[in-house]
Amino acid sequence: MNNYHTHTYRCGHGYGSEEDMVKAAIDLNMQELGFSEHVPLPFYRLFLLKSLPHTLGSLHSFLSWCKAFILNGPGMRMPYKKRKEHQKVVQELKQKYKNQITIYQGYECEYFKEYLDYYQRLLDNQEVDYLILGNHFDRYPIHSYYYGKKKVDDEMLKHYQQDVIKAIHTNLFSYIAHPDLFMMGRNKFDDLCKEVSLAICKEAKKYDVPLEVNAGGIRKGLVCRNDEMVYPYNNDHFFHISQEIDNKVILGIDAHHPQQFNTKDIELLNQFVEKHHLNKINKLTFKKGNSH
Ligand SMILES: [Zn+2]
Ligand SMILES: [Zn+2]
């Protein structure tokens, strides 16, 4: 397989250098490897300041906000000024390992409307080869608006749908990472979950944006939800819908540690794909935004 979803220690919650990840991918005979760190954002502190009033209802949210503000990024993303260093390392690795593996530079991005022009510039300036959508947050990168939190209410879920669909329309994102992340915060795949999933799958099909089957969800193990044993994401009901719509799907390791490149997880990803008869692709076509 190829993998276009790779983090490093630079995001503040991962382990291993860029080179550690390359070596781990080569050990698994991968042909293509893409780095997709959580996108570093310019004027990040200003963006965080705007979000401050939204954190005041939750101590967890406020404390993680303080940490992000002080460190200007980590533990969610590398500081903006570090991006050149990361990109330089990836460039050097592209050359060093060019006879063994093809390496690409990407980032994993939320749909933050303030930053869409910046995302387009990253592609236009060829700072990156591709971007993927990892829509972790609703409007601001704060815990109370995290789509992977314990409880995602109906209003938040509707925002998720709207933002993912708007993101698809930008043509900036080559695939949608963990498209069903919201199921972390829903006990039951109810009518609204069904409606949201159907809308996302249909739009992704129309705009030819693949959906990811994500090893991060599998690494969390099976959990009991509404009397069913399911992965917290890579939800069976979501991917049943995507099979009916005939979406393209792609595997993603979502590696935060070199050991997460392993045959056992890849086997589980493939079992999930086979169970749902999904239309799996291996090679990603990079989208370049609407300015092209
Ligand atoms: Zn993600
Ligand atoms: Zn990720």
From TrEMBL:
Coiled coil: none annotated. GO terms for molecular function: histidinol-phosphatase activity. It is an enzyme of class 3 (hydrolase). Pathway: Amino-acid biosynthesis; L-histidine biosynthesis; L-histidine from 5-phospho-alpha-D-ribose 1-diphosphate: step 8/9. Its EC number is 3.1.3.15. GO terms for cellular component: cytoplasm. Keywords: Amino-acid biosynthesis, Histidine biosynthesis, Hydrolase. It comes from the Bacteria. GO terms for biological process: L-histidine biosynthetic process. Residues 4-215 form the PHP domain. The keyword Aminoacyl-tRNA synthetase does not apply. Signal peptide: none annotated. It catalyses: L-histidinol phosphate + H2O = L-histidinol + phosphate. The keyword Hydrolase applies. Belongs to the PHP hydrolase family. HisK subfamily. This is Histidinol-phosphatase.
